[in-house]
Amino acid sequence: MFMKREDIEVKIEECIDKAKRYKGVGEVASYIPELKNVDEDSFALSIVTTSGDVYNFGESEKIFSVQSISKVFTLMMALKDNTIEEVFSKVGTEPTRYEFNSLIPIDQRAANPFINAGAITTTSMIYGENKEEKFNRVMELIRQMSQNSEFTFMKDIYESEISTTDRNRAIAYYLKSKNIFDQNADEVLDLYVRICSIGANVESLAKFGAILANEGFDIYSSNLIVPQNIVQMTIAQMASCGMYETSGEYLMKVGIPSKSGVGGGILGIVPNKCGICVYSPRLDKSGNSVVGKNLLKILSADLGLNIFL
Ligand code: DON
C-alpha cells in the first residue's frame, strides 16, 4: 500500500511512543569498562528503505560502539575471502543456548559465526598482509555498503576491551589449539577487538542493512555490491543466531533477522523493504538492547515487517 512520507513518519513515531514504556529497563554493559561511559537513556532509530528513503529519529547522529553487530561484517569478509566450504568447515551454522562468550559451544568448532568464538574464527579468515590491511578492508566494505557514511575507530573502547578481554583470549588460544587457525592467537584477538570497536551511528548501519535487504544491490546506483549468496547466508544466520540464546524466541515474536551488540545497537534486515537500526544502551541479560528489541517488535507488528507474514 502506498503511503505518504508524513504518514509513515507519524506511524513510526507512534511505535516509538509505545516503546517508551521500556525506557529505564536493563543495564548498560560494564564488563568492558569504557562501555559504561554513555548516556544510559539515549535513543536513536533509523530506517532506510530499499528505494533509498531515510527516516531518522532521536539522536541519529550519535556514534556508538557497534560491538557484536560487527560479527555481520566479519562473516561477510570471511565469505568474500574464502570459499563457502572453507568458512563453514571452520565455524558451524547452528544457534546455541549458551551465552555469547561461552566456551561450551566450541566442540570441534564454534557453533555459529555470531558468538564470540565464531567471530574470532571468521576474523582469522580475513585476507590481508597485516592487521592494518585486514582492518582497512573491513572498513572499506562497510563504507561502500553505506554510501561512505561515517564509521570510525573508537580507540578508547578498543583499549578498554583489549586490556580486559581474558575470556576472548582464552577462546582464541583454544581455537588455535584445535587448529581452527594457525596465526598468532593474540594477533587474531587484536583484530577481533578492533573490529568490535568500530563506531557508527544508526543511519550508517541502517544504510548498510538496506544493501542486504536489497539483495546486495546499491539502493541508489543499483550496482551489485555484495554477491547474492553472501547476502542470503548472512541474513539467514542473523535470523537463526543474531540475538544469541534468545534468537528463537526473538524470531518468533519479532520476525526480523537481526544482530545485536552490547554497545546497545540492533541491526534488523527486512528483505526487499528496509534496513533498520535502533540504539538504546540498556541491555537485557543476554546482551540485547531492551528498548531496541521491543521497538523492533512493535515496528514489525505495526508496519507489517514480519518476514513470516
Ligand atoms: O567480545 C565481546 O565480548 C564484545 N566485543 C562483543 C560482545 C557483544 O556485543 C555481544 N552482544 N550482544
Automatic annotation (TrEMBL):
It catalyses: L-glutamine + H2O = L-glutamate + NH4(+). Substrate binds at residues 68, 116, 161, 168, 192, 244, 262. This is Glutaminase. It comes from Anaerococcus hydrogenalis ACS-025-V-Sch4. GO terms for molecular function: glutaminase activity. One of its GO terms (biological process) is L-glutamine catabolic process. NCBIfam families: Gln_ase (TIGR03814). Keywords: Acetylation, Hydrolase. Homotetramer. Belongs to the glutaminase family. The keyword Hydrolase applies. Its EC number is 3.5.1.2. SUPFAM superfamilies: beta-lactamase/transpeptidase-like. Pfam families: Glutaminase.
